[in-house]
Amino acid sequence: MGDGRGEKPREADETLHLRVDALRADETMQLRVPPPPEPSVPAGGRAERRRGARAAEGAPADASGRSSGRSSGGRSPGLTSSLPSGLSAARERAVAALAPLLALLAPYARRLAPYARRLKPLYPRRGRTGWRRWIPSWRQSLGAVLTSFGLLGAFLVTAYAMTDIPSNLNSYATQQDNVYFWSDGTPMARTGWVQRQAMPLRDIPPDVRWAVLAAENESFYSDPGISAKGITRALFRTLGEGDTEGGSTITQQYVKNVYLTQNQTVSRKFTEAMISLKLDNAMSKDQILEGYLNTSWFGRGTYGIQRAAQAYYGKDVGKLNASQAAMLASLLKGAGLYDPTLSKANHARAVERWSWILDRMVKIGKLSPEERAGYTKFPEPLKSNPLYDTGEQSDYLVELATQYAKKAAHLTDKQFDLGGYQIYTTFDRKREKALTDAVTKARKQAKRDDPKVAADAHYGASSVAADGRVLAVYGGPDHRKQGYNDSNATTVPAGTAFTPFVYAAGLEHGVRTSRDGPATPVTPDSVYDGDDGVPVTTPEGPYWDRSGKKVAAHNDGGRSYGRITLREAMARSVNTPFMQLGMDAGLATVRRTAEASGLLSSSIGPQVPALSLGNSTPSAIRMASGYATFAAGGTHTEPYSVRRVTRNGAPVALTVPHASRAVGAKVAQEVTEALTDSFRTAHPEVAAGRTGVSGKAGTTEKDTAAWYVGTADSVSTAAVVYRIDLATSLEPLPLQGLAGTSDNSVPYALWSAATGLG
Prior knowledge:
Blueprint: H1 46-57, H2 77-82, H3 85-119, H4 138-162, E1 178-181, E2 187-191, H5 206-216, H6 228-241, H7 250-258, H8 266-282, H9 285-295, E3 297-299, E4 302-303, H10 305-313, H11 322-330, H12 335-338, H13 344-363, H14 369-373, H15 393-409, H16 413-417, E5 421-425, H17 429-449, H18 451-454, E6 457-465, E7 470-474, H19 499-509, E8 527-529, E9 537-538, E10 541-542, E11 563-565, H20 566-571, H21 576-585, H22 587-597, H23 620-631, E12 635-636, E13 642-647, E14 650-651, E15 660-661, H24 665-682, H25 684-687, E16 693-699, E17 705-712, E18 715-723, H26 746-755
Parallel strand pairs: 1-5
Antiparallel strand pairs: 1-2, 3-4, 5-13, 6-7, 6-18, 8-11, 9-10, 12-15, 13-14, 16-17, 17-18
Helix pairs in contact: 5-11, 5-13, 6-8, 7-8, 7-9, 11-13, 17-26, 19-21, 19-22, 19-24, 21-22
């Protein structure tokens, strides 16, 4: 037997051989042992299987059962040997310092260890196949859900405890008036329709209260102040669509009205819910309902149910019936959409919601079926708010300034109705008084001369500066009886007062005597046929109307003037040359020139030869603005009635109109010179010694309107007299002498009074 060196390795299952030869001192005895058996899946419960799995995945053990990665001292030799001696000592000191704490926590850790091991995810899970290997156990899922609810509950409790009911009310609960000023800075009007008259709940009829509750929150007296379903829906809309409307309780709406802003955000909605919960515990339901009814916006500038009752039905809230209350309750969903006087679509929505509210009142037992059967006709509200109408001219001025301020400052009706605005208008107090006095005098004279004709008389007038400022208007006799503003109405034709725009179009763009030929320049000295009844021609021949007749132009009184220059035709109010000039320059060109000068495109008449003689229906404000373009050297500035707006002293940004070129400066000067000749020819005594004054009368073919439009000291004024029976239609009636005679024209009298020449 050899010494064993160089022998091949033996298999694990071979028999051990013990050599009993005499051993040398350097020889060793070799002991071969079989390898350990493969680990088997432990039997028993899930916990045992997990422990077995973890043991199988751990570090291999040596023959003695200890981890091969640990030394007998329990420390990792590799880690110890890899650390410098200083760090190793520091580590040992830290462990020693923490030893008491660890010893104290050890019993608790041992108790929690089994539960922690159960919750600890083991992925992929043993004993599962496919995607199920990655699904948490029911214990893990339940633990996650309970933990989430616990954290959410803790957050809500903390938020509720930290939320206080604000001590100060916001601007929605402290409404202010809007104040209007004349151009000299003195107060002109103060709108008081936003003032709220608080009403005790005992003075608000039960039908009114329950109409509101049926519409907005029928469970008000039983809910905790918030609607979980509504808040969830609102948050979903906010995150998904940017809309938080819907589902708010009366308490939430009251909180939003008096404590918060109207910003549609998640944070505002959350704060609203917290305050609502606290408020519901701090105040009685009746107190909350009373506050809500006195602070809610109902449109027409009104806040609170009392002002709404006065604005829509002209009566106190105590006199409302259930039907009227249901109509007012429908406005809480949005007065801009449910005020039935604003549009047909609004009316249809209001009727539908009114009926729904009454049905809801029956369903919740607050209105009997017999009472409901008596409310079949929609309670039509008043057409306008009677709370702020004074009947004076200032009402028309306030109306114009309000419309312009909202548009220029980009304010919604609701924002403007909050109040606190100072509106500095362009209206001149002296000019306004002179114009109003002149129209009042004319009205009295008309009633004396012919009361029947005067009953349908309308007088519209406006003064507009060359830079676009509206200095004065006359809108009607009494805003309470006639909200229709005669100065801003587009109802009657301009007649021959429109011819300066035809003249400007010809001078600016020339004329074409052949369809494809070049444009031929036109000057004030260009000659046209001034005879009455001259047929209107095109490059192809006479112009035929749809009935097969030749279209001919006519002069006032059927008078003929022969060959006449355009400037002289303007001075002597000869019509026929301008109808032909319009055809030669092109009716489309005439239209563009009139619109560029200030007339609204919606008021321009049909594009037929009569366009040149004023079949358009501009308002007095727009006619004055158009003539002001010529006084401004051919540049046009949109008319505006507000020069500055502030809110509680802070400036509000306005969109400012800018001047634009309508016609050339030379053309504007030539038109002005022709209008100056027209004024001097018609009124030589007044024109003597005066400069900077121009103007022209305007008549219509069917005698339905009489105008005078002109400029003095760079301010253009337009005055119109016409007849309309507003109770029947907007179709103009014959004047029947209401406008006076050509030598004693009522429109000219109004114009001269407004310009200081009367």
